Amino acid sequence: MNYIVFDLEWNQCPDGKAKENPALPFEILEIGAVKLNSEMQEVSRFHELVQPSVYKRLHSMTQSIIHLSADKLKKADPFPAVCERFRQWCTEDATYCIWGSLDLLEFQRNMRYHNVENFFPFPLKYLDIQKLYSICFDDGKSRKSLETAVDELQIPKSQTFHAALSDAFYTAEVMKLLPDKQLHHFYSIDYFRSPKNRREEIYIIFDGYSKFVSKEFSSKKDLMKDRKVTSTKCYLCGKNAKKKIRWFASGGKNFSCLAYCEEHGYLKGKIRLKKCENSDGFFCVKTIKQIDVDRAGDLLERKLILQERRRLKRHHE
């Protein structure tokens, strides 16, 4: 197995969001990647510029950050050709690694726009090194910049940042210092391609919680009526846990609930509604996590506060 640690640099509409192409808000200009073997040893590198076809002029912010030459970009190959060479360079059994999740999203958007086959496996499990760095060396919730992580780990800064190959190199250097257990136990799941049917639905048990990614539904209402979506199965024993607080809107597109397993105690459920990237439908990501009595009480208190806020809002309308 190889690890493909990659980074992208992209451009956006130089004339502002009002004039951008909604199908391609960010256009890839550069792909850089480092290939590591199973022993975390570097075995190969990939680096190419991409000739822009949508936004021919560079946004002022792009110019100030990445310092790419317009002349070199004009001489580069179009995205489909560069993407195909990148695909061939990657191995079929590769694990993809990035800093954050945006590069993976924009890579697939560029594939879709240019009618290039999406060569990533489905479901796409990847390593978000930014998240893993936070889990291993911080509070697990904060998201620090790549340069900050490099400084905190005292990695020598031999190359400039905000260049695709350099950032891929630094991401790989951070990755090498992550404990093996966290590296493989806390992988992420990409949602650009959501499950189309029951057979494709995703259910994974992590260390401390379970995650379920549903199939697509035509409406949010249909989604929240689905029994599989709203079920509260204990991930520790597989038995159905009895709901103590039924699903309630807990802010934005999120829903929460409280369930109780006779063997393992209180479980907190969370549903995040998401718009499908490739259709007009909706899907959800549901997590079930074991919590203690105090956190169960906090969830009940939050529900009561939200209920009171909604009551007061209706009263004043």
TrEMBL record:
GO terms for molecular function: exonuclease activity. It comes from the Bacteria. Residues 2-184 form the Exonuclease domain. The keyword Nuclease applies. Pfam families: RNase_T. Transmembrane segments: none annotated. Gene3D superfamilies: Ribonuclease H-like superfamily/Ribonuclease H. Keywords: Exonuclease, Hydrolase, Nuclease. The keyword Transmembrane does not apply. This is Exonuclease domain-containing protein. It comes from Muricoprocola aceti.
